[in-house]
Amino acid sequence: MNVIELNQLTKRYGQSRGIEDITFSVKEGEIFGFIGPNGAGKSTTLRTLLSIIYPTSGSASIFGKDVVKYGPEIKKHIGYLPSEVFYYDKMKVKDLLHYSASFYKKDCKKRIRELAERMDLDLNKRIDDLSYGNRKKVGIVQGLLHEPKLIILDEPTGGLDPLMQQTFFELLKEENQKGATILFSSHILSEVQKMCDRVAIIKEGKLITVEKISTLQERNHKKIRIETKVPVDAGLFALDGVTKVESEEGNRISFLYSGDINLIMRRLAEVQLANLWVDEPDLEEIFLHYYEKEDVQGEHVPART
Amino acid sequence: MNMFLHELRENRRPMIIWTFSLVAVTVLFFSMYPSIEKDGDQFIKVLQNYPEGVLKALGVQINSITSLLGFYCYFFLYIMLCGAIQAMNLGTGILSKEVSGKTAEFILTKPVTRVRIMISKLFAVLAILVITNLVFVAVSYMMAKAVAVEDFDVRTFFLISAANLFVQLIFAALGFFVSALFTKIRSVLPVSLGTVFAFFIISMFGSAIGDEASRYFTPFKYVDMSYIMKHSAYEPLYLDMGAALIAVAVGAGCLLFVKKDIHTV
């Protein structure tokens, strides 16, 4: 069953770009990533789903109900964490969370305590005394306290330290195991890779692709840079799956590689290396890959092994 | 109910400050009354030196100013001015501070309709204004009783006092409408002060030149103190107009806000 369905969802802001013709769906129990660079339309999409803003055309439904028509009903079962967390500054954390809980017909006291303990959040502080990271924690507790069936997170990890991020991801995994569907947006690929089953990639307001993470990883490009002791011919690396070869004075070579990592390692071993860097490509480079695919229409198909 | 209580709590502090201000003004003026009453003739003589236009603009009725109710009417203009600012601040802020404080995302992702949100907020505005006025009227009445030399008509006294709430409700409704129309108001004070003073000046100017038509354009003139003094009643026409204005402003504000995209980022 699909928990979220977007059907040619379009949102324009006057002349400026919003999102255009977005169609995808998220299945029940899935952890679904929504990635794209800043300004791609991730937040616009999520905010449309929550009917904070209304679509220009197209439609979206959650739990099989139209998001505009049945907004309040749907929202009973949604937990939302905005990218930037803002709350009533003068309230205490405790009061804010209880206020938030008062919208759901449930007793959330115990749950608030549990979540706060796990997130290491001081309930007695005032909101305006909190650091950015601690505000984010309030947001997380606020989004999860009513045990929602659907959790929507907009760039959830900003401001959290790595340890807290891990706790947070554990929390999400637990919720997921209990049956919650999770949709979260991010511009950090590794974060998405860790968590998600599938991802939608969006750029400049348009949906580029929806992929399984496993497929994405197979196609994953490594960015390899080498420095050699003596200049070598860049042609040496003309393997299947090597793209964007750049050579600087013959002894600084960089390229993108996707394919069996052993093949490229063997080839690299033939060269007298002075230094070697293997990096995960950033999102831009992944997009590049998708753009290339669109442009060349199948001529350049990355190697799959 | 939770949103209503939340709004009361959020607005508690300004409510206390405004109530205190209104009470301070009424206490101050009433405590001047005994000396004015005592030297009434001299006071009137001084006033007679003023140009008639100025007296009218300031709402001074020479023949009644030395009576307790007449004096109350005179300084009630300033009570209404303060009250209008409070009400307009409140009415404008109640929506726009959610947007400018970026808390709109919180409230709009809760399982409540926007209409529910607005109704809760409007009732909170009403409650705050009623509480303010109850305190103000109670203190005014006690002060009036304390300084009165002879009996005064209690009904007229309360009609004058309640005029503040009436004018406040109009300004609160206007503020609400403005904030629904321009959701991106960053700072409430310039908007509310600007509007209130514009209407106040229209009202003073209208009184000074004695222009009847100008009464339609300023809520301050929907209650005419000399009419209340004379008839111990409000003018039905202006009462209806005020009520209509409130209904239209609130209704239009709700319609606007329900349809609106809320941008907090």
From TrEMBL, chain A:
Pfam families: ABC_tran. One of its GO terms (molecular function) is ATP binding. Signal peptide: none annotated. Transmembrane segments: none annotated. It comes from the Bacteria. Residues 4-229 form the ABC transporter domain. InterPro entries: AAA+_ATPase, ABC_transporter-like_ATP-bd, ABC_transporter-like_CS, ABC_transporter_ATP-binding, P-loop_NTPase. Keywords: ATP-binding, Nucleotide-binding, Transport. Belongs to the ABC transporter superfamily. This is ABC transporter. It comes from Fictibacillus enclensis.
TrEMBL record, chain B:
The keyword Flavoprotein does not apply. It comes from the Bacteria. It holds the Pfam family ABC2_membrane_2. GO terms for cellular component: plasma membrane. GO terms for molecular function: ABC-type transporter activity. The chain crosses the membrane at residues 15-33, 65-87, 122-144, 156-181, 188-209, 237-258. Keywords: Membrane, Transmembrane, Transmembrane helix. The keyword Transmembrane helix applies. Coiled coil: none annotated. This is ABC transporter permease. It comes from Fictibacillus enclensis.
